[in-house]
Amino acid sequence: ARASPMLLGGAALVCAPHSTNPLLIAPHQTQPRASRRVVAMAASKKKKMVALHGKGGTAASFEEYMRPLVEATSDTWEWEFIDGPFESAPGKCWWVLKGGVRTFEAKELIGCDESLALLDKAWPFDGVMGFSQGAMLAAIACGRGLGPGSTKMGRPPVAIIAGAAFPTCRGADVDKLKMMEYAAAESEVVVPESVAASPGALNFDPLVKSLHVIGKRDAMNPPEQGMKVAEAFGPGAQLLEHGGGHTVPLDEDAVRRYLEVMGVEVNAR
Fold first, then answer.
1. Top-confidence residue, 208 or 25
2. Tens digits of per-residue pLDDT, 136-182?
3. How far is CA 236 from CA 216, 232, 267, in A?
4. Is 195 exposed, middle or buried (0-12, 13-18, 19+ CB in 10 A)?
5. CB 180 within 8 A of CB 205
């Protein structure tokens, strides 16, 4: 069977075909689906990963694309794929932008607070993975904090941020995490120009253990934008650079890195 393109949100990606999967909804289909999709393999005390698709994607299409990682972590993690609350053909998005404006240029992310409210409602969870616009929402949430009411103190211990740009108009939210990470490390070290270029340089456990996935040929969100997001996560940020474009790599090496940051025994697979 030929590999077929799948819309992840912001990019058409190629993965193994699953032509009989009813969860894979093509752009021309209109059948209804729940706004949340929970993938749990067995009733047990598993960690919970919330997954956020990119602009134009859906919970269903992102779940289908991420199936290799979902299956590889099924013993210890359950995954919840959430749909963005706004329409963005052929799928959904997490905020609306004025015509021709990119997120890293925007003065306002219309609807961002409604999307954050969805994550507040989903809290608590142990990890968040986002792609493109979903990755930027994840970064904002990790900095702002999550939880009910006005006190937003919850932060997931694990974050996988793929294909992100720095959401400039919400940069103050993202940067809160960096300040907290340095305070937690009791460090007065000045933030280097590229913290993520030397992951693990400081020996401490970060509040949010993050892996930042950056494509060297990403024309949608340039690599320097992804690096800026990584730096905002403080000295514990880890970097996964790949030679592709605006995508979530699922090759063997990339999956190994995801398993490591999620605390899954790599040798057991």
1. 208
2. 999 999 999 999 877 788 999 999 999 999 999 999 999 999 888 87
3. 21, 10, 24
4. buried
5. no
Q: With beta carbons less than 8 A apart as the criterion, state whether 123 and 51 touch.
A: no
**Cα–Cα distance for residue pair 159/138, rounded to 1 Å:** 8
Exposure on the CB side of residue 108, measured as CA atoms within 13 A: 5
Nearest to 18 by CA among 26, 9, 10, 28: 26
Query: Measuring CA to CA, which residue among 103, 106, 15 is closest to residue 67?
Result: 15
3-state helix/strand/coil string of the chain: CCCEEEECCCCEEEECCCCCCCCCCCCCCCCCCCCEEEECCCCCCCEEEEEECCCCECHHHHHHHCHHHHHHCCCCEEEEEECCCEEECCEEECCECCCCCCCCCCCCCECHHHHHHHHHHHCCCCEEEEECHHHHHHHHHHHHCECCCCCCCECCCEEEEECCCCCHHHHHHHHHHHHHHHHHCCCCCCCCCCHHHCCCCCCCCCCCEEEEEEECCCCCCCHHHHHHHHHHCCCCCEEEEECCCCCCCCCHHHHHHHHHHCCCCHHHC
Query: Do 152 and 143 meet the contact criterion of CB atoms below 8 Å apart?
Result: no
The per-residue pLDDT for range 120-129, each reduced to its tens digit, is 999 999 999 9
Q: List the structure tokens of 176.
A: 């809160």
The structure tokens listed for 224 are 């320097």
Dist. CA 239–CA 247, nearest whole Å: 15
How far does Cα 249 stand from its chain's mean position? 13
For residues 235 and 192, give the distance between their C-alpha atoms in angstroms, rounded to a whole number. Answer: 9
Dig out the tokens for 248 from the structure: 């979530």
Backbone angles phi, psi at 115, to 5 degrees: -70, -40
